[in-house]
Each structure stands twice: as structure tokens, then as C-alpha cells.
Amino acid sequence: MLDWFTDPKQVLLPLLIIGLIVFFLKASPPKRLILRTVCTLGATYLALTSPLGATIATRGLTLLLSPDTGQAADAIVVLGRGPLAEHERVQAATKLWKAERAPTILTTGRGEALRMPTQLIQLGVPLDVQLIEPKARTTEENAVRSFELLRDIGARRIILVTDQPHMLRSVWTFRSFGFKAVPYPVEIPTTLPAIEKTALALREYVGLFSYALVGRFQPRKTSFIRLIKSPGKL
Questions:
Q1: pTM of this prediction?
Q2: Which of 31, 119, 121, 224, by CA, is between 20 and 30 Å from 112?
């Protein structure tokens, strides 16, 4: 989704072609409107994909996050996100655990949950304080599949670790399952191009809208959680 956005040729070239075609048409009010629209879309794209545009797009996703007050929690939950900022997530979780913010670390995500425990061990976090959830493929599944693991250890207050753009959707999703989720976002690596940072932020705006549309931020019932955890439901 939105992979085309990170390729300027797929965005600017069609706009240029449309603009040139319309430019050579007979003068008319629709012609002027189309040319203004094409120019506006091109300028907007260039602004959004600039370093400043990427910063603003990402900042918009963090404005509603409550600050971390340093309170203790029952568990640290590290969400998978592919290789993006994976090492930073592990480092953040290790820092929190060593600061005795929570006694347990849960890693969740298909693929990542199998890699991150090894990294945690290398950083000094023993395996016996870790919980592993290796099947989740989406933010919704992260919360669904983590629910019983956290409930079994009596966890109610959790510290969520994920990247800045992903954090708002993650916090709202976990809170819908009854957890007191404290955000602990990690920054996106500075080596990631601005255009990809903007695309990442736009994916999250789309994700927030779609999750809200289907009611995933509303309080869940335990019976519903058990239903969607049944085989074949995810």
C-alpha cells in the first residue's frame, strides 16, 4: 500500500503528461482548472516528501500521545514492524527493563518475535523474563494475540514500544482491550529517506481511519476476543 508514493516517477510523470496534454488544448475555464490542479498536486507532493514535510506528517501522529511519566508497569510490549527500527525497539525495551519499569518483556510479531528475544538476551535480558508471540501480522493481531499472554500474568498496565508513526494506532488498539497502555515511541532511523518517512506516516493515517471505521478503538468484550482468536479467524 502506497508503495507508488515513494517513487517520484510514478507520481510526477503522470502529472507532467496530463499537464502537457491539457496545455496544448484550446483555452477554456476547465483547462485552467486542470492545470492549476496538476500544479497544486505536484507542489503538494514535493512539499510532503521534503524533510520538513516528513517531520510535520510524523509530528501529527504524536500530538495526542500522553508523555511517559516514568511509572512502573506490569509488562513491556514490543511490537514488530519488520526490520524498521527493530534494533532501536530492542534497545528501548532493554533500557526500560533494566530501569525496573516492568518485570516482563513481551515481543509480538511474525518473524520479529523470533529475532528480538535473541537480541534481548545479547543485551542482558534473560529468556525467563520474556514472553514471545510469533504469529501476529497486524497491529490488531498484536493486541489480540497478546491479550491472553498478558492476562495470564495479571498485566493491566503495559508500556508499548514501537516507532513514532505506529504508536498512536497501537496505543488506541491495546486500550480497546482494557489495557492501560503507556506509549514509549522510538524514533525512525535518520537514514530513512524523507519520502519513505512521509509514506510511513500516510499509511498510519489510513490505518487510523480504517481502524476507527470498523470500531477497533471501541472497548472489546472478552467473548469477542476469544472468537477472533479461534483457528481460521485471523
A1: 0.85
A2: 224
